[in-house]
Amino acid sequence: MPRVAYVNGRYIEHRRAAVHVEDRGYQFADGVYEVIHLYRGRLIDEAPHLDRLDRSLGELGIAWPVSRAALALAMRELVRRNRYATALLYIQVTRGVAPRDHKFPTDTRSALVMTVRPISEFPAEMRDEGIKVITIDDLRWARCDIKTVALLPNVLGKQAAAESGAYEAWMCDTDGFVTEGTSSNAWIVTADGTLVTRPAGPDILRGITRQAIIRIAGDMGLTFEERKFSREEALEAREAFLSNSSHFVTPVTSIDDTVIANGNPGSLSTALHGRYTEFMDSAPLALSRG
Ligand SMILES: Cc1ncc(COP(=O)(O)O)c(C=O)c1O
After folding, report:
1. Which of 70, 112, 131, 163 could disulfide-link to 65, CB 3.0 to 4.6 Å?
2. Which one of 49, 83, 118 terminates a domain?
3. What tens digit of pLDDT does each residue of 20-52 get?
C-alpha cells in the first residue's frame, strides 16, 4: 500500500506529490498549517484544530480552500487510503499559486495539501525518563499565535537542541521569560504544586494540547496559573514538561544541563500524561468500522 497525499483535490502517491514553484507557501511562507494526531484510528481534538485553522486563515485573510465539511471528508478519505492507525495528519493551506509579487493576488484559489505521516506510539522512555531542553533567544515575529508555515527560527532552535543532545529548545523573550518550545508549549510546576504556563497571547501558539491539559487540570482540581515564568524559575521548578499534539505531556528532566528536581519525571507530569492518554482513548474513531 503506497503512502498517499492530497494535493488540491487529488489523491496522489506521496513520493510523486508536489506543488507549483510559484505556490506562495514556497515563495513567501504565505500559508498556515495544522497537525492532528491520528491516535489508534482517532483524530484527536479535530474540531479545535479546525477552529484554529479557521482563525489562522482569518488573521491572514486567506480564504478556506474548500468548505470545512469538505475538508473533514477529505481528511477521512486520506486516512482511509493510508491505512495507518497512528500517524500525524498535516493540513497546509497557502494563498495559492500566482506570479511572484508580494501583494495578495486577486484571482487565486487557496491551495490545500494534506499528508499523513506514520509515527510510532509514544516512546515509553520519554515518559519514564523525560527529555532534555536547552534555552535560546526567541527570534520570532510578533504574531506567534498564528500557525504559519514560516518556521525558520523554530527550525534553527530545534537544530541547536539536537546539536546539544537535547530534544527541544525553549525560547526566551528579551526579559528572560520562557515563551514556548520550537514545536511545543512549556510548563512548570512550582514548589507549592502550582501548574504554570504562559498566558495565550500573540507571543505563543495557543496549543490545542495546552487547552486540553488546562481542562484536565481543572477536572483534577489542580492549582493552575496562567503567567509568565523565567528561565531561572524553570531551573528551580519542582517539575517541568512540554505539550504538543504528537507528544502530549512529555516530562522535562534537564534544562541547559541543570537537572530539574531529582532528575526524574514529576508526579503531576506523569499523572497528566496518563489522563491525557485516557482522553485520547475516549475520542471517537475517524472512520466507522466495516
Ligand atoms: C510553536 C509551537 N507551540 C506550541 C505547539 C503545540 O501546539 P498543539 O498542542 O496544538 O500541537 C506547537 C505544535 O506544533 C508549536 O509548533
Report:
1. 112
2. 118
3. 999 999 999 999 999 999 999 999 999 999 999
Asked if residue 151 belongs to a domain, the reply is yes
* Confidence (pTM): 0.97
> Do 270 and 153 belong to one domain?
yes
Please state the atom number of ligand 1 nearest to the C-alpha of residue 208.
10
Q: Over the stretch 167-215, which tens digit does the pLDDT of each residue have?
A: 999 999 999 999 999 999 999 999 999 999 999 999 999 999 999 999 9
pLDDT of 55: 98
Pocket of ligand 1 (CB under 6 A): 35, 154, 180, 183-185, 205, 207-210, 243-245
Q: Is 147 a catalytic residue?
A: yes
What grid cell was written down for 199? 498566558
Catalytic site residue from 103, 132, 147, 158: 147
d(CA 282, CA 188): 27
Angstrom distances, CA of residue 124 to CA of 40, 111, 160:
16, 38, 25
Choose one of 63, 94, 118: the last residue of a domain.
118
Q: What does the radius of gyration of the chain's CA atoms come to, in whole angstroms? A: 19
State the maximum Cα–Cα separation within the chain, in Å, rounded to a whole number.
59
Q: Can you give the pLDDT at residue 104?
A: 98
